Amino acid sequence: MPLSRPTGAGWRQRLTVTALGLVAIALLLAFSAANQPLLSHLRNLVFDSEQRLLPRPEAGAPVTVVDIDEASIARLGQWPWPRTTIAAMVDRLGELGAVTIGFDIVFPEPDRTSPSLAVGALERQGARVVLPPGLELDNDAVLAAALAKYPVAAGMAISNETAGALPPPKAGFAYGGADPKTYLAPFRGGVADLPILTKAAAGLGFFSFPAGEDGVVRDLPLVASAQGNLYPALSVETLRLAQRAGSFAIRSTGASGEADTGRPAMTAFKVGALSMPTGPDGSFRIYYSGLPKLPVLPAADLLDPLRSAAFADQISGHIVLIGTSAVGLRDLVATPLNAATEGVRVHAEIIDQIVGQVFLSRPDWAPGAEIALAVLCGLIVLALENLAGAIASTVGMLLLVGLAATLSWWAFATQRLLIDPILPSVAALLVFAVATPLLLLWTDREKRFIHGAFSHYLSPELVGRLAQHPGALRLGGEMRDLTILFSDIRNFTALSENLTPDALTSLLNDFLTPATDVLLAADATIDKYVGDAIVAFWNAPLDIVDHRRKACLAALRLLAALAALNRRTGSDLHIGVGLNSGECCVGNFGSAQRFSYSAIGDAVNVASRVEGLTRQYHVPILVTEATAAGAPELAFLEADRVRVVGRQTPIPIHALVGDADYARSSPFAALATAHATLLAAYRAGAHDAADSALAAALRVAPPSLAGLYRLYGERLVALRLDPPAADWDGVWVFREK
Q1: Cβ-Cβ contacts under 8 Å for 343 (sequence gap 6 or more)
Q2: Per-domain residue ranges for the chain?
Q3: pLDDT at residue 463 is higher than 60
Q4: Does domain 477-631 have CATH number 3.90.230.10?
Q5: Residue-wise DSSP of 160-173
Q6: Contact 656, 634 (CB under 8 A)
Q7: What are the tens digits of pLDDT across the range 110-137?
């Protein structure tokens, strides 16, 4: 029914709509202010989606990764490797011309494979060990000597989970404005290399990623404060060594040219000739490219003299990061582009992004602009509700939501700005949701949706079960996977008006008795009789193997039993059967004085809705996809995808037209092909093709499907006269039960 503004709407109605809309906007703003973590999570999901749609172009920075992968561990032995092996790796990289070597690994404990330990153990047992002079027995000293020969950045992890002492930083920090130590959140400590290794390295940077709420690495501090010192991230430390720079430069609020907001914060960071923007806490927003061309060299190949020479071009003049992708070493992180990627690749992404000078920015004015836009969107929808009615406000609301999304995408794609469309979109939707029901009430003056209460009757007593388990006579239940059946006689009300009470009772008993026999023979539990309707379910109280298939076969046998009744009595009864499967709560429900063994849950409600749809689709049996999936050998045809009252998620429904023998027959194969073609053409808006497929289906369809195809014929005529919106998804929406 078209919605429009009531012509007699007075100022009180408009005032009510306006007041409720303004309250909704105010509550939304208050909620967003009080739930920043939730809003931040949703905002990050939007920005992640934008990155996936438009990744950063790879800058081609001279970065190479040496990967300690599963294959390398298989060839060289389990981790940790002897430090002499790591030293050989460093020497090989230095010989091949690596400009800087960065370790995304930490060596906090002495090498247990050092010969000195073995010699000491032998001497303590009384052995006399004679070694050539000058032989180094400490593997850590061997690695330290290798580190000292080349520009190497040692790695360390910083966190608040340990108070372990950290070595002094290798680089200095120059800053303008507020001292970074006054506003950076301090870390308690961390884990670093052995002192002998740290001392030998030219640089020192942290590689740990601060844990996000959802575990996705979106940003990384370029500088961190810990134990009274400032430490650089591993990525920028390797850039410092590569440029032979001695220190970093930090700009804070209060510096020359920077506004002093009263709250100290970082505004920019510089290493050598490369500058980059930061967040107030020194965080750097990573704009991922995926680095499709990043050279990744297996560590074992690098240590193989016959293979390593082939890597000279990928190492000479490059920053080389040494990390691991081996699952057992647990250096896998989630990013907006990948659910799991090596942590060392994230450091490579940062280096490539800084070299390419392509940055994402969330400006200081963005939150205020988003709030202002949210208020504006809410006011526009409110004005449309009052002045133009529900149809115009619906269109306006959709346009505003689309405009907010478009603005966010344009800002990201062209300006690299992160502008959140969520708050403006929710404001428009919320005002619409608050105001539109009032318009519906005032224009229609009738309730659009009436939820009838189900009559409550006792189900048949489970005498045998209760006799063996009297403790079952109590309130309560359990969650079980059930298949639920609803069956109802068509046009029973009109039929009952022409029968005497005795004749009506006899007719009902004539049907319900064989129907009950069919269900009990199929291992069903009879839940209740509601007038002419039967409710039954499978898989409770006892486990029923293959209960979906048994329920479908029982539905077919109900039709056969009804046909036999009609032949015997000369009646012309028809039933509709709806089936659905899912998790339900099943048990004894009611009061302490009176209860019944029954099932409740969303799956039960859906089964009831599906049974009601048999009238709309003119077929005797409709089955949800959750049930049909358990009986793939039977003859099903998809009837439609529908959105029923009380559910937003579309439900695929299938007509059950025959058993396994019919499903294997050539007539059904021809029918299934024509039917699938009809649905595809109908949903694509290809009317001519749909008409042809409809005609083909009618030629081979059994009489029970005539009503379904008549319905689709009517829909095709209606869609030609009134085409759906461009974003129509082919889902048919029912407004009534």
Answers
A1: 104, 207, 209, 323, 331, 332, 333
A2: 11-55+369-444, 63-356, 477-631, 661-737
A3: no
A4: no
A5: SS-----PPPSSEE
A6: yes
A7: 988 887 766 666 656 766 655 666 666 7
